[in-house]
Amino acid sequence: MSVLADSVAWITGGGSGIGEAGARALAQGGATVVLSGRREDALDRVAESIRAAGGRAETAVLDVADEAAVRRVAAAILDRHGRIDTLVASAGMNLPNRSFRDLGTEGWRRLVDVNLNGTMHAIQAALPAMRERRSGTVIIVSSWVGRHALVLGGPGYNATKQALVTLSHSLNMEEWRNGLRSCVVMPGEVATDLLGQRPSPPPAEEMARLLQPEDLGRTIRFVAEMPPHVCVNEILISPVWNRAFFTEAPATNG
User: Fold this and answer.
1) Angstrom distance (rounded) from CA 23 to CA 221
2) What does the pLDDT read at residue 193?
3) Are 47 and 81 contacting, i.e. CB atoms less than 8 angstroms apart?
4) What keywords are assigned to this protein (predicted)?
5) 123 tagged catalytic
6) According to the model, what pLDDT value does residue 198 have?
7) Residue burial 140-174, b: 16+ Cβ < 10 Å; e: rest
8) How does DSSP assign 18-41, residue by residue?
């Protein structure tokens, strides 16, 4: 039996892409998954599919940039289930116009609010209950640019995704005393809808050579299923056909 059996996992950004794949993988392992995201229809689609496959899934519409709303969702999960065993902070975004020339103040603020502040809001909302139980796993979805900044990512995406790496390590430095652990996952290009927001999205034949969402789902489950004395501090993962190595076509998941 999986160690995830009867556990509760909260996934932000759970209505699509990496968050959806992580939710499916954790549900297959026996966890009850609570999906958060801004689009109710997307959350319902994923939850219904998980339930049809025999899993347990719930939804909570949420913009992670709204700190008060994040705390309300966490409180509702704890009121219903009494625990949050795994937090997958997967909500993230980039903008089509992302260069220094094109990125305005509002765009910058939105990237920081969603990618960085939104992750912090979810962590802070889940931590008290995890500390009380002296058990909990946080999985933060960053990006290849969290380690290797690229022009294509843009300054806002690069900066926020690198900040997530430091946030995860800071969590481990403080919360090991309480039996908690954090892993930051830094994927290269993943064939998700987010790539469609690029100024020049990859063609279909190239998308097929990239990481697939299910690859990240397996990665998330791997981290969550590690014995409680093990901390996987970070994972840098990419397709073998890694366009970040092509000087003519630098690439990033955003």
Assistant:
1) 9
2) 79
3) no
4) Oxidoreductase
5) no
6) 67
7) bbbbbbbebbbebbbebbbbbbbbbbebbeebbee
8) HHHHHHHHHHHTT-EEEEEES-HH
Q: Tell me which of 27, 121, 157, 161 is the catalytic residue.
A: 157
Any idea how long the chain is? 254
Average pLDDT, the chain: 94
Q: What is the pLDDT of residues 89-124, one digit of tens each?
A: 999 999 988 999 999 999 999 999 999 999 999 999
Report pLDDT digits (tens) over 23-47. Answer: 999 999 999 999 999 999 999 999 9
Q: How is residue 115 annotated by DSSP?
A: I
pLDDT at residue 254, rounded to an integer: 62
Distance CA 248, CA 242 (A): 12
Provide the terminal-to-terminal Cα distance of the chain, rounded to the nearest Å. 36
Q: Do 5 and 81 touch, CB atoms closer than 8 A? A: no
Exposure string for 88-121, b = 16+ CB within 10 A, e = fewer: bbbbbbbbeebeeeebeeebbeebbbbbbbbbbb
Tokens 């366009």 belong to residue: 243
Name the β-bridge partners of 37: 61
In 3D space, the residue among 55, 163, 64 whose CA is nearest the CA of residue 122 turns out to be 64
What pTM does this model have?
A: 0.94
Alpha-carbon gap, residue 253 to 92, rounded angstroms = 11
Amino acid residing at 181: R
